[in-house]
Amino acid sequence: METKKNIIAPSILAADFANLGQEVANVIDAGADWIHFDVMDNHYVPNLTIGPMVCRSLRDFGIKDFIDVHLMIDPVDDLAQEFIKSGADLISFHPEASNHVHRSISAIKEKGCKAGLVFNPATSLNVLDNVLEDLDLVLIMSVNPGFGGQSFIHSSLDKVAKVRQMIDASGKDIRLEIDGGINDETISLASAAGADTFVAGSAIFNTDNYEQTISRLRSKIV
Ligand code: DX5
Ligand code: ZN
User: Fold this and answer.
1) What pLDDT is recorded for position 4?
2) CA 96, 161, 121, 11: dihedral to nearest 10 degrees?
3) Ligand 2 (ion): which residues have CB within 5 A?
4) Which CATH architecture fits 7-219?
5) What does pTM read for this prediction?
6) How far, in Å, CA of 175 to CA of 5, rounded?
7) Which tens digits make up the pLDDT trace of 2-33?
8) Where are the domains of the chain?
9) Residue list, ligand 1 pocket, CB within 6 Å
10) pLDDT digit string (tens) for 107-145?
């Protein structure tokens, strides 16, 4: 895992898909740390996006940066393996979408890929009692998954604070990511609660100057 303290991960869900390779290159040039790659299957969530072929296309286009794949799909395991083959650096999935969470994590890590678990606003953190130390990242959703451009759900901040305590108590190098409704204001709240990795889709891609936007967002991290 990178040692850099805070990470900004633009979600390509809000990018121009007709121009995706260049959009990703532009946002990396503008100072983004990771690329957040949202995968939706019209089953686990009511929307449909992109699969492993698009991840491979970004690699073939020349993108060498860290690709943070957020699977909003059920089932998880087969497509997770396809994403590993297609150049993903980290794969996160929702525990309720896997019948055997520990097995799904192990299958990702065995291939040398990093693994994360994602928690919706109404999903309990209980599973972390058993698998936290196997993870490279915990992702707290601050909206219900499925769409960009939604409003930040403030109760997610309590969850971030709880996971921050758990990670610190574990002594492990586990990143704490937040996803949904991140903007100038909510990035400060999330970082104060303990997040260190920030997904932002519309707040970045819906602006004209990615560099200004990313540096302004970074300046709001406390
Ligand atoms: C929602 C996705 C998010 C989304 C965030 O299901 O997981 O990554 O793209 O978009 P914004 O930043 O617009 O809320
Ligand atoms: Zn996401």
Assistant:
1) 55
2) -90
3) 38, 70, 179
4) Alpha-Beta Barrel (3.20)
5) 0.97
6) 9
7) 445 899 999 999 999 999 999 999 999 999 99
8) 7-219
9) 11, 13-14, 36, 38, 70, 143, 145-146, 148-150, 179-182, 199-203
10) 999 999 999 999 999 999 999 999 999 999 999 999 999
